[in-house]
TrEMBL record, chain A:
<dbReference type="InterPro" id="IPR004412">
    <property type="entry name" value="GatA"/>
</dbReference>
<dbReference type="Pfam" id="PF01425">
    <property type="entry name" value="Amidase"/>
</dbReference>
<feature type="domain" description="Amidase">
    <location>
        <begin position="26"/>
        <end position="464"/>
    </location>
</feature>
<keyword id="KW-0067">ATP-binding</keyword>
<dbReference type="InterPro" id="IPR036928">
    <property type="entry name" value="AS_sf"/>
</dbReference>
<dbReference type="InterPro" id="IPR020556">
    <property type="entry name" value="Amidase_CS"/>
</dbReference>
<keyword id="KW-0436">Ligase</keyword>
<protein>
    <recommendedName>
        <fullName>Glutamyl-tRNA(Gln) amidotransferase subunit A</fullName>
        <ecNumber>6.3.5.7</ecNumber>
    </recommendedName>
</protein>
<feature type="region of interest" description="Disordered">
    <location>
        <begin position="131"/>
        <end position="157"/>
    </location>
</feature>
<feature type="active site" description="Charge relay system">
    <location>
        <position position="79"/>
    </location>
</feature>
<dbReference type="InterPro" id="IPR023631">
    <property type="entry name" value="Amidase_dom"/>
</dbReference>
<dbReference type="GO" id="GO:0016740">
    <property type="term" value="F:transferase activity"/>
</dbReference>
<dbReference type="GO" id="GO:0006412">
    <property type="term" value="P:translation"/>
</dbReference>
<dbReference type="GO" id="GO:0030956">
    <property type="term" value="C:glutamyl-tRNA(Gln) amidotransferase complex"/>
</dbReference>
<dbReference type="GO" id="GO:0005524">
    <property type="term" value="F:ATP binding"/>
</dbReference>
<keyword id="KW-0808">Transferase</keyword>
<comment type="subunit">
    <text>Heterotrimer of A, B and C subunits.</text>
</comment>
């Protein structure tokens, strides 16, 4: 039998449906691959091999009765920021080292009542970072070059998919945390429209920005996984009550007649030449495939990173207030309650979490609120207006996903600002809440480059169709590494 | 310049303990980050409304209906210190 690990998720699902493999065999293959490579990669904080086999057996048992969704057949990797019933969920933090959630996040519950899960993937603490080096459980290594980072914060999910420790993964994206690691590991990463996927059970970082998204081997897998997790949820008041269309129906329709704008501000000298070159090549390929390709300006994109690094820390300083040693997580005992809070948070949080709590608390404090937070929220309005104008003229916007290919472990850990610059291409879409996808476009310095495509709110169907065309143009191919 | 005293004040607002080393480093790091984001203040946005939610949703309501949720035993299971039916905390000072 052909190695199951070389199949896409939809390929595996079809194989199992045809009766030529079982879900249990798939789970065994993933467990074996984790065993083989994860000592080197550290993609996982927690692996769940027995749980995967047990649940796989039950899905196999349900198959003859019918009613099993195609995605349920394919074992999945889940970022350790998503609550999983009965399985420890750390958020990459010491403060949640022994925390076991009582329910599954809605996105995962939509995937299946008992999702066949390979394990919980490593991440920057509370999803703050662009390299997965800010994890209390050690850095994850890039399967393309184990001396380099996989990107972040969903670096564990990206590395696991790129290495074939599973067929697909859920990641989360606040300012690029699905797209940038997908780009650096040579896989597809989709940040859906804000509100398209319920945040219930996602441990919050920036509540007005956080999105759960698929990290997959190809665009068709991305469409299939989005189909599984999307939908309105009364438990999340920010989830959108908008019908979920069939994301696979028009996937192969091509880009004939589609208007594609390359974003000028995201193609300047801040982006490595090799990355720009790959992006231009894909845009030219889309033109050859029948799209109308031009240039478009998002003038306030120059202020997006700055606005993001006020809004996201402000929201996180508020969200992380819940980790107080009272209801769950670590408690460091002390005489009075305030000293208990301070000591618990001092020991439980890592350096970047502390830095962002301080930055956010400062930006929200009396005397600075208007200068920083309120101003950043107004910049956000301007960015949304820029996108609105751009979408009056174009259907899809194109840019690089990240300014460079994967960098070496340790290269940016002493310089928070250099690390933040990794997000320059990703944050405009995050602030505007529009969907964006990273597709492998080619190589630079023998490492993968991601090309980002952005659509208007709730146009994931068209975005995926354009991404599928870009994937055909790039002809990148996927095989598990190393 | 953010002084060590300001760092201590903000940390105390956030109920965040910092080591002496962290206090010394934090001021300079916050300065560097704030310097880099200073440029958003050059935009004149007096007439621009702020955005809190990218879809502009507000006041989303659902019916106020009771339904089975976690039992108190389940809800207390992850607590560091539970006494009877309650979360126990040190003396409130």
């Amino acid at each position: 039998m052909e190695d199951l690990l070389n199949l896409t998720a939809h390929g595996l699902s079809e194989r199992i449906t045809a009766g030529d493999a079982s879900v249990r065999e798939a789970a065994e293959a993933a467990n074996g691959r984790v065993e083989e490579v994860d000592g080197d990669l550290n993609s996982f904080v927690t692996t769940t091999p027995e749980l995967a086999l047990e649940r796989a057996g039950r899905v196999d048992g349900r198959l003859p009765g019918g009613g099993v969704k195609p995605w349920e057949l394919v074992p999945i990797v889940v970022k350790d920021v998503l609550s999983t019933r009965g399985v420890r969920t750390t958020c990459g933090s010491k403060i949640l080292e022994d925390f076991t959630p009582l329910y599954d996040a809605s996105a995962l519950a939509n995937f299946g009542e008992e999702p066949v899960m390979v394990g919980k993937s490593n991440m920057d603490e509370f999803a703050m970072g662009s390299s997965t080096e800010n994890s209390a459980y050690g850095p994850t290594r890039n399967p393309w070059d184990t001396g380099r980072v996989p990107g972040g914060s969903s670096g564990g999910s990206a590395a696991a998919v790129a290495a074939g420790e599973g067929w697909w993964a859920l990641g989360t994206d606040t300012g690029g945390s699905v797209r940038q690691p997908a780009a650096l590991c040579g896989i597809v990463g989709l940040k859906p429209t804000y509100g398209r996927v319920s945040r219930y059970g996602l441990i919050s970082f920036g509540s007005s920005l956080d999105c759960i998204g698929p990290m997959t081997r190809d665009v068709k897998d991305s469409a299939l996984l989005l189909q599984a997790i999307a939908g309105h949820d009364p438990r999340d008041s920010t989830s959108a009550n908008v019908e979920v269309p069939d994301y696979l129906a028009n996937l192969e329709d091509g880009v004939e007649g589609l208007r594609v704008g390359v974003v000028t501000e995201l193609m300047d000298e801040r982006i490595d030449a090799g990355v720009r070159e790959v992006t231009s090549r894909v845009a030219t390929g889309l033109e050859a495939a029948g799209a109308e390709v031009g240039e478009v300006s998002l003038p306030h994109a120059y202020y997006a990173l700055e606005a993001y690094y006020i809004i996201a820390p402000a929201e996180v300083s508020s969200n992380l207030a819940r980790f107080d040693g009272v209801r769950y997580g670590l408690r460091v005992p002390a005489d009075g309650v305030h000293e208990m809070y301070r000591r618990t948070r001092e020991r439980g949080f890592g350096a970047e979490a502390k830095r962002r709590i301080m930055l956010g608390t400062y930006a929200l404090s009396s005397g600075y609120y208007d200068a920083y937070y309120a101003q950043a929220q107004k910049v956000r309005t301007k960015i949304i207006e820029d996108f609105r104008k751009a979408y009056a003229r174009y259907d899809i916007l194109v840019s690089p996903t990240s300014p460079s290919v994967a960098f070496e472990i340790g290269a940016k850990t002493d310089d928070p600002l250099a690390m933040y610059l990794q997000d320059i291409c990703a944050v405009p879409a995050s602030l505007a809440g529009v969907p964006a996808i990273s597709v492998p476009g080619g190589l630079s310095e023998s490492l993968p480059v991601g090309v980002q495509l952005m659509g208007d709110h709730f146009t994931e169907g068209m975005l995926l169709r354009a991404a599928r065309a870009a994937e055909r143009v790039a002809d990148f191919g996927f095989s598990p590494r190393p | 310049m953010i002084s060590e005293e300001q760092v201590r004040h903000v940390a105390s607002l956030a109920r965040l303990g910092l080591t002496e080393d962290e206090i010394r480093e934090m001021g300079g790091q916050l300065d560097a980050i704030l310097d880099s984001i200073e440029k958003i203040r050059e935009l004149d946005l007096a007439d621009t409304p702020p955005t809190a939610n990218p879809l502009n949703l507000s006041n989303v309501l659902r019916p106020d209906e009771s339904r089975p949720e976690l039992t108190s035993e389940e809800a207390l299971a992850p607590a560091p210190d539970a006494v009877d039916d309650l979360f126990a905390v040190p003396r409130i000072d």
